[in-house]
User: What shape does this take?
Amino acid sequence: MKNVKLCTLLTEEEIKKKIEELGRKISEDYSNSSPLLIGVLKGAWIFMADLVRAITVPVRCDFLQVSSYGQATESSGVVKIITDLKSSITNEDVILVEDIVDTGLTLRYIIDYLSIRHPKSIKICALLDKPERHKINIKIDYLGFTVPNKFVVGYGIDYQELYRNLPYIGYVELEE
Ligand code: 5GP
Assistant: This one.
């Protein structure tokens, strides 16, 4: 039986400071518009909740739920939309809010899925990025942190549906 050991990667304080920076930058860039933030569930919900409160321009929010890895540990690139948007995004300035970019395949699928609805613009905001794992070229417009190739949890991100409620971000190590 393996024990799960949690190691801290990013503290609550570091996350808070970074989200204030991201909020300031987004508020400057959208000073003349009211963007529609689309959070990708479930992993991005806590990030999104803090991010919108750090943005000073009026924003609207919607959510998209996509299938995760299931039992697999790596994205296949085949993404299933579980819950679709409630709002129209045609002519909207969309900011897609993701928890973590790993291979980039999920994000690529979602961008293509949203693009056919003709938004005015789409920008990507991701809390975490694992650049060494990218399989495709993905431009992240607003990035929180680059992280090493570890399985991260906390602050909305789960391991078998657990650890979402951790206020910090850690990584999981399995011990004998
Ligand atoms: P990608 O398609 O970029 O490979 O995978 C993106 C999705 O995989 C993320 O939105 C997240 O749900 C999941 N994911 C990627 N890396 C991790 C990780 O380190 N921990 C957890 N819990 N999920 C991850």
Observations:
- The mean pLDDT is 93.
